[in-house]
């Protein structure tokens, strides 16, 4: 899950930012007990989240607060650790007042991830386009591989089937900040469209005469092919970078004896 990122706190410049990451036994009163503890210590919650998605019997409580510089945080942490529902605790002080609301190292779709600006990603694309022959095909192949991996992961953690696999993709793309996906696909004919509203690539790209979201086309193709066990190709025909209102990707089947990588390389 991708969460909001608070980069700097400016509420009280005379205080330090304190973070707690608590693993707790997941009972009906666990979260309330921990929250009450912080209230008793007069530690106001600036940002917090709860997560029990990996193991329903255990939860994670991540909280960011601000404390006066003379407050004994270690004693508070030790007292918190002695609570019956608390299994483990980590904590730290950010004297530079940085609040980071995701765990480090961050994991997305089962692998380590990093957060970068969309503009940074587009800068990579521009450098590749300037210096690498047939860079669009290369980026599409990279997207293809990543889409296949995303589908394999979702198969492991979600009840994926032919009726919901595209909806799962839509939720994934929104959570990752890529854009909003609308889709219309006939899974028997392997034909349809995938429309991306506010694509993170096209939104940061300068005006273009050609579609620029080849990486996303490849990702969608890899995801659908892995989900259905049938190979499809995806081609962007409308793009916000070209002045269109959204990015439209056309889905079509690939003959069984042809690999999509060969199509992309023009063989």
Describe this structure in words.
This protein has 267 residues and is α+β, with helices and mostly antiparallel strands. It folds into two domains: 15-104, ACT domain (Alpha-Beta Plaits), CATH 3.30.70.260; 112-264, Muramoyl-pentapeptide Carboxypeptidase, domain 2 (2-Layer Sandwich). It has eight helices and ten strands. It has helices at residues 30-40, 73-81, 118-131, 135-157, 165-175, 200-204, 214-228, 260-264; strands at residues 15-25, 45-51, 58-68, 86-94, 107-108, 111-112, 180-186, 191-197, 232-238, 247-253. It has a four-stranded antiparallel beta sheet with strand order 2-3-1-4, with helices on one face. Strands 7-8-10-9 form a four-stranded antiparallel beta sheet. The longest helix has 23 residues, at 135-157. It is elongated.
Produce a short descriptive summary:
The protein has helices spanning 30-40, 73-81, 118-131, 135-157, 165-175, 200-204, 214-228, 260-264; strands at residues 15-25, 45-51, 58-68, 86-94, 107-108, 111-112, 180-186, 191-197, 232-238, 247-253. With 267 residues, the chain is an alpha+beta fold. The radius of gyration is 23 Å and the shape is elongated.
């Amino acid at each position: 899950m991708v969460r909001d990122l608070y980069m700097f706190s400016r509420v009280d410049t005379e205080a330090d930012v304190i973070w707690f990451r608590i693993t707790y036994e997941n009972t009906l009163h666990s979260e309330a007990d921990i929250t009450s503890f912080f209230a008793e210590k007069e530690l106001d919650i600036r940002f917090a989240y709860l997560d029990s998605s990996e193991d329903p019997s255990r939860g994670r409580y991540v909280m960011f607060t601000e404390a006066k510089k003379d407050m004994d945080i270690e004693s508070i942490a030790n007292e918190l650790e002695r609570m019956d529902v608390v299994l483990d605790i980590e904590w730290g002080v950010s004297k530079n007042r940085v609040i980071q609301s995701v765990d480090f190292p961050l994991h997305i779709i089962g692998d380590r991830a990093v957060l970068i600006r969309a503009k940074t990603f587009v800068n990579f694309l521009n450098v590749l386009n300037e210096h690498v022959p047939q860079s669009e095909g290369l980026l599409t192949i990279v997207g293809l591989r990543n889409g296949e991996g995303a589908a394999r992961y979702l198969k492991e953690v979600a009840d994926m089937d032919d009726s919901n696999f595209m909806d799962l993709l839509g939720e994934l793309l929104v959570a990752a900040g890529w854009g909003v996906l609308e889709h219309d696909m006939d899974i028997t004919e392997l034909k349809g469209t995938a429309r991306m509203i506010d694509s993170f690539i096209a939104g940061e790209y300068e005006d273009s005469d050609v579609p620029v979201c080849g990486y996303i086309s490849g990702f969608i193709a890899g995801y659908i092919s892995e989900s259905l066990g049938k190979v499809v190709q995806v081609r962007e025909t409308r793009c916000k970078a070209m002045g269109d209102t959204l990015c439209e990707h056309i889905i079509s089947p690939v003959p069984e004896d042809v690999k999509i990588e060969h199509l992309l390389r023009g063989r």
